Amino acid sequence: MAKKPKRTTNSPARLAAQAEQAARHAEEPTYIDLLDQARPIGAVKAPPIHDEPEATEASSVDDRYSRNAAANRYVNSQQKKRKKEGIFKKILIALLILAALAGIAAAGVFAYTQWLNSRLSEGVDSSVEAVLVETNLTQEPFYMLLLGTDESIDRNEDLSTDGVYRTDTIILTRIDPIKKQVTLVSLQRDTQVELPGYGTQKLNAAYTFGGAELAVSTVSEIAGVGISHFALIDMNGLQDVVNALGGIEVNVPMEIWDDDAGGYLPAGEQTLDGWEALILCRARNAYSDYGNGDVYRAANQRLVIQAIASKLLASDIGTIANTVGALSGAVQTDLQVNDIIGLAQAFQGMDTENNIWTGSMPTESFFEDELWYERIIEPDWSEMMRRVDAGLPPTEDSSVDFLTGTVLANAGNAGTSGQSGKDLAAKTGTIAVRNGSGVDGLAATVQQRLEAQGYTVSDIGDADSFNYDQTVVVYEDPDRADEAADIVAVLGEGRAVKNNLEYIMSEDFLVVIGKDYANNSDE
Fold first, then answer.
1. Claim to verify: residue 437 and residue 375 sit in the same structural domain
2. pLDDT tops 70 at residue 258
3. CA angle 225, 228, 233 (to 5 degrees)
4. Is 521 strand, coil or helix?
5. Do both 311 and 367 map to the same domain?
6. DSSP states of 4-72
7. Are residues 131 and 278 in the same domain?
8. Sign, CA torsion 263/266/268/271
9. Residue of higher predicted confidence among 156 and 385
10. Low-confidence winner among 118-132, 196-210, 343-357, 499-513 (lowest mean pLDDT)
């Protein structure tokens, strides 16, 4: 049976059915109509779409899809707008929270600063301020008195009053923020003074009897200068300051064994923690074989202060802040936190090797009324203070104790803060040692002593006889007389003499050991 061919044209019935279907589609609601029906009362309808023809009964299905696309674009734009508004609100809230936190932080910093100030100024009253001279802290030179007390030191009962200890550290400090120079001058604690109402006393009793007011006024009168600020340092708290800095770099001049000071320190360049720095500041008995222990202790205290200043000025603001916090527990002062930080910033970039000068008040010991005192050597003291007040180092040249290597004065011209005293004591030339005392092994002992101070001993042996009563240091070049005298100082005995052809020598110096040195070594 033959297949019926497909229709290739629409019949009238098929066309009528398509027309009826199109009419039904026209009556169905569009996406826009559904959107409008879903809007709450008062909501704004979608704006008319101007770039498309308005729908009519003849509109095709494509026209309706186009209207739906426009509606979708509008809805998307509203959603983006609301999203942007939401982000803006979140940012605004975050900013408000940050502002609130910043306010809280600022209040916290202010409260902390006030707390530090209250700790620093504890014990400071109007009577102290009355004796202080007003100056511009960062714009002109001024003097500051540093006092140190150490409750760990053994004392007799009559040396303290109501738990107030005498100040064993007394340093007059000149600070020049313009030239970035600092001068530290130690005053002997046993210096004899007259204290109003208390008669003849030692200088370190001024704070005990009259507090900072009497201490400041007494030192001001002795030095002939006005003092603008003061600080009382608790030596026990000094270790917290050093630890806050992460330690300090110090070249310890000699090996220290001192149980009263806290223990042992090796000689040489090293980083000291707080306790080790305290040992160096306290050590006095370790120097009893060399002279006045107070003089050496004061010199080492200046060395530690210099090292603290060097480390502090090279630190970041965070370390400085931590150090100020530690200071508040160890220091009483009229300075405020902002003053200390301002000074630290003013001295940033300071040449601490050459612009921190040190010295000690010239005195001589004497015994009176069963007590040892120090008497000021007035001409030398007046000259020292003249130099200091003029912005010069206390002495023309640096001075090193050749027995211990301790830097007694730093004039900034020898780099004493970066070297040990033994390094500075090193001399050119050679030395021959001859034993004229008759005590076996003494030539080798003297050789070790000289070489420990940086000298070169090229030959040792016995002298032509053992009948030398006095040690002599012989030199031939008249320009080396001072060096010969320095060798005598190292030995602690004898005299320097120029060779008058009495001695046969090929070295620059000849040391002939006498019985005086042998007797001294036996002691």
1. no
2. yes
3. 105
4. helix
5. yes
6. PPPP-S--HHHHHHHHHHHHHHHHS--HHHHHHHHSPTTPPPPPP-TTSPPP-TT--HHHHHHHHHHHH
7. yes
8. negative
9. 385
10. 118-132
Quote the number of domains for the chain.
Answer: 3
CA distance 142 to 163: 32
d(CA 148, CA 171): 9
**pTM, 2 dp:** 0.61
What is the DSSP secondary-structure string of 217-274?
Answer: HHHHHHHTS---EEEEEEHHHHHHHHHHTT-EEEEESS-EEETTTTEEE-SEEEEE-H
Domain that holds residue 447: 428-522
* Identity of residue 359: G
Indicate whether 16 belongs to any domain: no
Mean pLDDT, residues 200-210:
92
Query: Of all residues in the chain, what percent carry a pLDDT higher than 90?
Result: 31
> Which two tokens mark 418?
């970066």
For residues 501-523, give the mean pLDDT. 83
Amino acid of residue 120: L
Please say if the pLDDT value at position 79 is more than 70: no
Q: What pLDDT was estimated at residue 16?
A: 61
- For position 325, which CATH number holds? 3.40.630.190
pLDDT in the model for residue 53: 47
- Record the tokens describing residue 110, joined without a space: 């202010």
476 found inside a domain = yes
What does the alpha-carbon distance between residue 229 and residue 212 come to, in Å, rounded to a whole number? 10
51 has pLDDT over 60: no
Find, among 517, 503, 413, the residue nearest to 471 by Cα. Answer: 517
- 444 in the same domain as 390: no
Looking at the structure, tell me whether residues 408 and 504 fall in a common domain.
no
